[in-house]
């Protein structure tokens, strides 16, 4: 009840940052990644390089200062009874430890928000909500999914990207000092994204620091469940995904000796299909060689569930009610475009598309002009192109 009305209050007044995709209806890791990559690919299509910094907030949920959170709540809800209610909810909570048959003395929890509660994530979103406001550079975007935060800047000049990002890192560090949060320098990483040709011409270097600690520049990094590489090749991500699926296919091969096909399908939908399709609108433009690796595993799953030698693999897929992988990925993309136009996804996804007719926005879309083939894999181009092809 409290969560429902607090969220409604914040939403109706548009108080939550548009940069935050965590713990919000219609938002997900998938939508956050789609927005992020579309922005990157648009910049690269404009002959720019993209600098990204993936910030690591140390034990973010556990370090929330109650006094600071209450102060922020009082700015959003100028209603003293409500603020007093949340103050009583947070303060004087106690915990004990039970070990070897004995209880410890009670200790008062002075920091952190109650985890496992429906209010915890929303209170954290309120606590971190003003972080993007502390970034003064118009060239830098701050994207957040709960405490997973990235800073992104693009320009034709690498030095400009570096300067803008360094300025913003300093501002985020200052915000952390004021809000009793801690940035982890060793786990904070940077990356310079560009086309493969630009990387081959010369080494692209980002020299960034966090409080006199050098920020490591990496060529690949796991962010919100996918592995990003600085050339958009998707090789590290798909290689990792194939390893995970292969392990689960082995389990399926053992499981088939004990359960029927319907139970095997449950295992497939729980432990194989999610890995095949997670955030697919971001990476489904990968090379045919990489796609073939995933497709082989998808088809192998069908063969394991239906070992009948008289049927072709395509017939087995049809009998099991499974789409071929290419069609499955196309469906995922079309569904996300549909959600964007039916207000079932964040507004930032709808804003990626330009329509011919404002009265019938979902009828046909204007395709952005691709300067390079890589841009054709972006959601704004590939999604619009796919949607226009639907009868």
Q: What does this protein look like?
A:
By secondary structure, this protein is of the alpha+beta class. Helices cover 48% and strands 13% of the residues. It contains 16 helices and 15 strands. The chain has helices spanning 2-12, 29-45, 66-76, 80-90, 119-128, 158-178, 196-201, 235-255, 261-271, 273-277, 280-283, 288-305, 313-320, 325-341, 347-350, 379-389, and strands at residues 49-55, 94-95, 98-99, 102-103, 107-108, 140-145, 148-155, 189-193, 209-210, 213-214, 216-217, 220-223, 226-229, 354-355, 365-366. Strands 6-7-1-8-11 form a 5-stranded mixed β-sheet, sandwiched between helices. It is globular.
Helix content: 40-55%
Shape: globular
Q: Give the biggest beta sheet.
A: 5 strands, mixed
User: Which regions have little confidence, pLDDT < 50, spanning 5+ residues?
Assistant: none
Strand order of the largest sheet: 6-7-1-8-11
Q: How far apart, in Å, are the first and last alpha carbons?
A: 44 Å
How many separate helices? Answer: 16
Structural Rg: 24 Å
What fraction strand?
5-15%
Mean pLDDT: 94
Number of strands: 15
Q: What would you call the structural class?
A: alpha+beta
Give me the secondary-structure topology.
Layout: H1 2-12, H2 29-45, E1 49-55, H3 66-76, H4 80-90, E2 94-95, E3 98-99, E4 102-103, E5 107-108, H5 119-128, E6 140-145, E7 148-155, H6 158-178, E8 189-193, H7 196-201, E9 209-210, E10 213-214, E11 216-217, E12 220-223, E13 226-229, H8 235-255, H9 261-271, H10 273-277, H11 280-283, H12 288-305, H13 313-320, H14 325-341, H15 347-350, E14 354-355, E15 365-366, H16 379-389
Helix pairs in contact: 3-4, 3-5, 8-9, 8-12, 12-13, 14-16
